[in-house]
Write a structure and sequence with these properties.
The complex is a heterodimer of chains A (116) and B (114).
Chain A lengths: L4 E3 L2 E4 L5 E6 L6 E7 L6 E7 L2 E5 L7 E4 L6 E5 L8 E8 L10 E2 L3 E5 L1
Parallel strand pairs in A: 2-11
Antiparallel strand pairs in A: 1-3, 3-8, 4-5, 4-9, 5-6, 7-8, 9-10, 9-11
Chain B lengths: L2 E5 L2 E5 L4 E8 L5 E7 L6 E6 L5 E3 L5 E5 L4 E6 L8 E8 L8 E2 L3 E6 L1
Parallel strand pairs in B: 2-11
Antiparallel strand pairs in B: 1-3, 3-8, 4-5, 4-9, 6-7, 7-8, 9-10, 9-11
Classes of the chains: A mainly beta (116), B mainly beta (114).
Amino acid sequence: DTGVSQNPRHKITKRGQNVTFRCDPISEHNRLYWYRQTLGQGPEFLTYFQNEAQLEKSRLLSDRFSAERPKGSFSTLEIQRTEQGDSAMYLCASSLAGTVGTGELFFGEGSRLTVL
Amino acid sequence: AQSVTQLGSHVSVSEGALVLLRCNYSSSVPPYLFWYVQYPNQGLQLLLKYTTGATLVKGINGFEAEFKKSETSFHLTKPSAHMSDAAEYFCAVSVSTGGFKTIFGAGTRLFVKA
């Protein structure tokens, strides 16, 4: 397994369009997290899944954002009616619950969104 | 709720000098603490972590950090900086309640001068 994979790596879209990002976690990891990172800031928590269940959503995640993890494997993050303020790097991370050091995250390289 | 404060958004050191990146956290329950590093155009990777036990933890590339509960700090150090250490460093905290949601600081960019 080569790690967490995110696609697409870059997305440029016009305001008002919908975009979808995909994350493939490390195969044996049961937790999957989405973060958003803007220039000069640390990653901001958006949401996380344990298996297929979405257990927590940040208040940062407006109604235009939706995330899914069908079958507890890959996950998608969709942003509807994009706004310029949505421009950011969207990071996906996975982890394995129940092991010593639980909380250690393995990150993908991110999907950079630019909204024109 | 947990929070993390990293003192100094930019730190510049000379090659061979001591690296000290400061991190203070806030948590109402015993925290797990992490330092992650992000090289340009790469994803974040774990540098080191504190969960329980020994308060001085060693990580990759010669970095270490000490958990000081009384000071709510988890500063990152390296005795001798190398040019390859230039990167952005993030301190992070998570707790066993709430699904180990990890909260990150704003980051410190380390510059290493020749």
